[in-house]
Amino acid sequence: MSRSLSKGPFVDAKLLKKVQNAKPASAGVIRTWARRSQISPEMIGFTFGVHNGKQHLEVLVSEEMVGHRLGEFSPTKKFVRHGGKMQTEMEAKKQQAEIDAAKAAKAAPAAAKKK
Fold this sequence. Notes:
alpha+beta; 3-stranded mixed β-sheet
């Protein structure tokens, strides 16, 4: 549920202070745990290290991000592919096809030199 318009957007006070005291080019990465903080126009051009629960992921703020939350750009869950026998077979076929294509590409210049 969004915040009331009378309250305005939530921006973490410490984060806003860090942004106001620095310039985008010289600030480097600003590390933060404030995932709930909304991106304001003053933050454009800054790079934030947004914590995802394990590490800080770098997020370069652009104009399209204004109004969104920092946490939206730092996913907390990592997708681990679906597995099984069928998936392994498909990957093996794909890898074999790449090897065959590389061999064919390597053999083509050698055949052209013989002619």
